[in-house]
Write a structure and sequence with these properties.
Structural class: alpha/beta
Shape: globular
Organism: Echinops telfairi
Largest sheet: 5 strands, mixed
Strand content: 5-15%
Protein name: DNA nucleotidylexotransferase
Bound molecules: cytidine-5'-triphosphate, manganese (II) ion
Low-confidence stretches: 1-17, 122-140
Strand order of the largest sheet: 6-8-11-10-9
Length: 504
């Protein structure tokens, strides 16, 4: 990607001088940019940029402000903050996400404020537990698509007794390298997760796609006996339990588990103390931080990690966008890691390539880096998207374990009881070119099943190829551009599915 004259470079030299008032082009708007969650550097950068583009931006919040711009903050948080500032939040006062301001900067004028820009109170996460959209789905099951990307799947799964069973069976088939049966049970779990009500009798399964005979047998057993004999057998199976245990170590996959199992290992302590086994750097870290990583990441911990990432990234690229992706973006309250997508509109190719290295050096100096594996980009702009449903992407990325001090976690303490003052947290950072950000965001938000079905749908229903980088129309032989996830859904002819409805 060729960038001429990075904006950011100029911005750094701008200092903090105020644009003279005669430069104000848009007099109806008075902006105020919230520092909270955004930080001083980035706020100063955006204020300066907006002023150069002819916007009036106030240093302080006052009654004259018409538009408040915030980042990574919900509408209710902004309202709360306003109350503390003793500013009445009048109906005229717009509360907007920073994406609106960025679009204005791009357009060089105020752009229309749409729903995606407006910080609707608590629209983000608490609504997960009581999702509106499901109510608009037809009550009958006749219209359920076989593709997860045409279903809305929130986190309140009312068929958990079935889906838990399917997931255990799918995992067991995976451990036994029976891909077909694994997929069948994963698809079945996925489709039941999208249902608005529990399955009570076999009649309720009529018309639901992705339920083959084996799956239906399990459903019937659970309806009749409250449990499935097959699932019970798996839970008592030695191979299943050993694989489950071994793969719970960061860096241990199916191949290693198979080897250890064949060698007769059944416990981690035996594996750990064996002198003949060679461990990879990843596995060594996996054993070293085993308990911390097993206890998983809470939302307050993820928020604290976000602050660390923001601070480090914005020190080098103040215009970078940092988005939490993965399970947390889908509204999950707990995750095995925290995933971030980073992209910068103004960075040169070299600055882009350097960023993760700089961030890692910074954390290393601060003593926060417990493990990292940096994978350089192998991205080629003109290459066709990958046809594989589970292909890895080509962006530069870094898999890390960070040291998170409890004192940095907002909820008081993070979920650890010992005297240890920190917790090891798995973090994934992905750096992507600005032009690919919508595809990367869609690809890294998941769930895995949702992603698989998006690609399957693109291929089979639209003669297009979708991956984490691009969307290619095979009929027209063109790459379809996208600035947002909405654009991609539109290209695919799909109704937009919000991140918290992608828990397929
Ligand atoms: N992903 C990907 N390429 C990878 C790894 C992950 O495209 N090499 C995508 C997957 O689609 C996945 C998302 O990134 O949905 C996040 O991956 P991961 O952290 O493994 O899963 P989560 O859904 O975030 O689950 P958890 O909360 O357990 O972390
Ligand atoms: Mn994740
Ligand atoms: Mn991840």
């Amino acid at each position: 990607m060729a960038h001429t004259g990075p904006r950011k470079k100029r911005a750094r030299q701008m200092g903090t001088s105020m644009a003279p008032t005669q430069d104000i082009k848009f007099r109806d708007l008075v902006l105020f940019i919230l520092e909270k969650k955004m930080g001083v550097t980035r706020r100063a950068f955006l204020m300066e940029l907006a002023r150069r583009k002819g916007f009036r931006v106030e240093n302080e919040l006052s009654d004259s402000v018409t538009h408040i711009v915030a980042e990574n903050t919900s509408g209710s948080d902004v309202l709360e903050w306003l109350q503390v500032q003793k500013i009445k939040s009048s109906a005229q006062l717009e509360l907007l996400d920073v994406s609106w301001l960025i679009e204005c900067m791009g357009a060089g004028r105020p752009v229309e404020m749409t729903g995606k820009h407006q910080l609707v109170v608590r629209r983000d996460l608490s609504s997960n537990t009581n999702p509106g959209p499901q109510k608009t789905l037809p009550p009958a099951v006749e219209n359920i698509s076989q593709y997860a990307c045409q279903r809305r799947t929130s986190l309140n799964n009312c068929n958990r007794i079935f889906t838990d069973a399917f997931e255990i069976l799918a995992e067991n088939f995976e451990f036994r390298e029976n891909g077909g049966s694994c997929l069948a049970f994963m698809r079945a779990a996925s489709v039941l997760k999208s249902l608005p009500s529990p399955i009570i009798s076999m009649r309720d399964t009529d018309g639901i796609p992705c339920l083959d005979d084996k799956v239906k047998c399990v459903i019937e057993e659970i309806i009749e006996d409250g449990e499935s004999a097959e699932v019970k057998a798996v839970l008592n199976d030695e191979r299943y339990n050993s694989f489950k245990l071994f793969t719970s170590v960061f860096g241990v996959g199916l191949k290693t588990s198979e080897k250890w199992f064949r060698m007769g290992f059944r416990t981690l302590s035996k594996v750990r103390s064996d002198k003949t086994l060679k461990f990879t750097r990843m596995q060594k870290a996996g054993f070293l931080y085993y308990e911390d990583l097993l206890s998983r990441v809470t939302r307050p911990e993820a928020d604290a990690v976000s602050m660390l990432v923001q601070e480090a990234v914005w020190a080098f690229l103040p215009d970078a966008f940092i988005t939490v992706t993965g399970g947390f973006r889908r509204g999950k309250k707990i995750g095995h890691d925290v995933d971030f997508l980073i992209t910068s509109p103004g960075a040169t190719e070299e600055e882009e390539q350097q960023l993760l290295h700089q961030v890692i050096n910074l954390w290393e100096k601060k003593g926060l880096l417990l493990y990292y594996d940096l994978v350089e980009s192998t991205f080629e702009e003109l290459k066709l998207p990958s046809r594989k449903v589970d292909a890895f992407d080509h962006f530069q990325k870094c898999f890390l374990i960070l040291k998170l001090y409890h004192q940095t976690v907002a909820s008081g303490q993070s979920s650890q009881l010992q005297e240890k003052t920190w917790k090891a947290i798995r973090v994934d950072l992905v750096m992507c070119p600005y032009a690919n950000r919508a595809f990367a965001l869609l690809g890294w938000t998941g769930s895995r099943q949702f992603e698989r079905d998006l690609r399957r749908y693109a291929t089979h229903e639209r003669k297009m190829i979708l991956d984490n980088h691009a969307l290619y129309d095979k009929t027209k032989r063109v790459f379809l551009k996208a600035d947002s996830e909405e654009d991609i859904f539109e290209h695919l002819g799909l109704e937009y599915i919000e991140p918290w409805e992608r828990n397929a």
